[in-house]
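Per reviewer request, we include the raw input and output of the structure prediction for the construct analysed in the revised manuscript.
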Amino acid sequence: MTTAAVALIAATLAAQPPAREMRAPQTDQTIDVTKGARLVVDNFAGEVVIRTWDRNSLRVQARHRERAKVNITPSPSTVTVRSTSGAVGSVDYEITAPAWMAMRIGGTYNFITVEGAQSEVVAETTRGDIVIKGGTGTITAKSIQGQVVVEGARGRITASSVNEGIRITDASGDITAETNNGDIRLTNVKSANVEVTTINGHIIYDGPPADRGRYRFATHNGNIVAYVPDTANVTFVVRTYNGSFQSAIPMSGPPRDEVRQGRRLTYTLGNGSAEMEMESFGGSIRVRRPGTAPAAGTKDKGKQ
């Protein structure tokens, strides 16, 4: 595909955000699938929406230009869905897959939604939002120019963006979240291993620390807020260069006014079993009780 064609697609998608068309799909095909097979969707531009059901069959509906053709290639281990087109244009998919089916969705100008999956989910796009509801095992969601939302996932979760925020809700398991220009919010999560990094954004974490858990939060130009119950057992390792540290929960440690110019200080709550390391160069660090109002300047600026 020529550079001019790619630029035309980018301009069209930027001017008109993807919307669900009401016209009948040009492709509507259902095939039986072998238990354990993986779904692979390769879509250069458009929208991919995947929902699940309890049948061992895969239904693919697609809206596209007349000259485009959607190819569904099954094998005992993989079912591949991709389109071929002699003209510039996007393809919008609505796919219904077995809940047990592992999925890998990729593309360049893609908006991806997966709902109800009960297996591994991998979603990657260059430009577009990713929303994953469900998933177990390995959950991977990566976008460069798009927001990433993960809800109700269980397992090892990796979420990353470059120029948008990340939101992870009602999830459990190891969590890694990273973005350059956006806030990261983790709400109602249960994890013993969390690593969160952003350069230009706030970090908000709300979840009970597990005994002997490890939590690492770092931002360059943002604040960090951790909602922690009084009954938690946590050692807080705090460092900020141009901010302050405040805690609404009594804990042992040096005076708070000693947190300055990047000095590494340690505070203990309970027996200190878990370790929560929080570092911000240009922002402040707050520890608050669950259910209290957000601290000033830490409201999530990302899309809701």
